[in-house]
Amino acid sequence: MTLKNPIIGASGTFGYGIEYEKFFPLESIGGFVTKGLSLRPRNGNPAPRIREVPCGLINSIGLENIGIDAFVRHVLPRLEGADTAVIVNIFGSTVDEYVELAGKLDRFRRIDGIELNISCPNVKAGGAEFGKDPLVVRSVTAKVREATDKTLIVKLSPMVTSIADIALAAQDAGADAVSIANTYPAAAFDLRSGRPFLGAKTGGLSGPAIKPLTLKLVYDTYGRIGIPIIGVGGVTTVEDVVEYALAGANAVQVGTASFINPGTADMLVRELAQYLAGRGIRRFSSLVGTAKK
Amino acid sequence: MILIHSGAVVAVDMLGQNYVLLSVWVESIPRFSPGQFMMVRLSEGYDPLLLRPFSILDAHEGVYRFLIKVVGKGTRAVRGFRYGRKVLLTGPFGNGFPGAARHGTIIVAGGAGIASVFSLVQRLHERGIAYELLYGARTEAELVLSDLLRPYDPIISTDDGSRGHYGRLTDVLAKRIKGKKAVFACGPLPMLAAVADLSLRHTIECYVSIEARMACGFGVCLGCTIIDGAGNTRRVCRDGPVFNARDIVLPGVC
Questions:
Q1: How many separate domains does chain A show?
Q2: What per-residue confidence (pLDDT) applies to A124?
Q3: Which domain holds residue A231?
Q4: What Rg, from alpha-carbon coordinates, does chain A have?
Q5: pTM over the 0.80 mark
Q6: Which residues pair with A58 in a beta bridge?
Q7: Cβ contact, residue pair B215, A54, below 8 Å
């Protein structure tokens, strides 16, 4: 999979892609990652599911999704004409489910890549539990690798002792890239009721608040692995994109910023081109990891 | 149609202690149907981070008005908006009130709920379509739009009797619902539940506009999902905010 530019719509904030066609032509961005899909549809967590905090958003959606079958039957045909990378995020509660999901997607030409979600903080089984131990990451990645020839991206949890070790395990098992990282486990409480704000009690923090934390994880991983790093966490402005590149990211995903302005990803593509041209930088890739050199 | 707009504040009017009437000039002049909403950015930085959904009160020659109840950090900031301040808006989003162009509609607005039915009343009035408007609140002080509503002959009620009929909106509705073709309502959930219950007992179609916290407004964050009567997920932003009362579960309605 080759991206035409390093700006990708992040899973959980970009719907199934088609929701954004009314804001900008999807072909303007490098690609997008679908909402996490499971074998069967999921209703998700009880309300309230979101709580805003200064510079951030705590969510506990709980992977509400239409299910893999509805996606390939009803959504995928509508993406046929869009000249952009379609990456499908998959979520299973067992290793076998991940393998089955990847196997089902493998035969669809329109799908460019699969992002393995082993880092969602909002589900009981699977999710972040798979992402904590390098041995488990290695095993689930290797099994999915056998099931598909698609570009395989592993989305890592930020809540680990050494993210570089986890990334290395994914690489060794055949991953083509890693997304660093998911949301951070978080909570907020209502002083009036004395109870958690969220129906699921806790959630995951995203938005500008987490950018410095995730930048550090990218920085720690850069140089330790040979496969590309996709930076995900608080990207809102073109300066954020460049900062992620300096830390070691080959591409970025835009998440919560698309809620503030649904045109953000499209805008960043244009602003990045201007930024680079204005400084005589010929290739974005020449910036990658330079903060570490 | 353009859905991302750069607007400019043209007026900020305080209505009583807790409400602001915000007028924003939007050059792109988006078309909307009554009951739809827009997302409005209330900060320039990241706190508050998200836009806020507000019903479009009305629009005239590119000036869109929003009735905003001051409840938190974001809405408090609106009071300090100056003339000319740039404001990002997205939308209009959501489904408005359906089949409004027929006689015999009764519109029920409780408190801030008037915001989502105001433009509907205006349009019915302009087209000479017969309707009744019930506008109620707990006290007179909360009937912030009564001056603007004067041309539309609202039937006013307050829970404490400080103005209009003494009692609940639904008591007024109970006396007037017979023979009506449809009920369109917006207000607090318990009120909507009572309105829906009454309408369904009279086998009159009832549409309610409901409120929810949402991050995006266009169906991707899944923050505003509710579970409908059949156990399916519905997004308030995209499948609503106006729902047929039969399709959703309101507290206390069987």
A1: 1
A2: 64
A3: 7-292
A4: 18
A5: yes
A6: A51, A205
A7: no
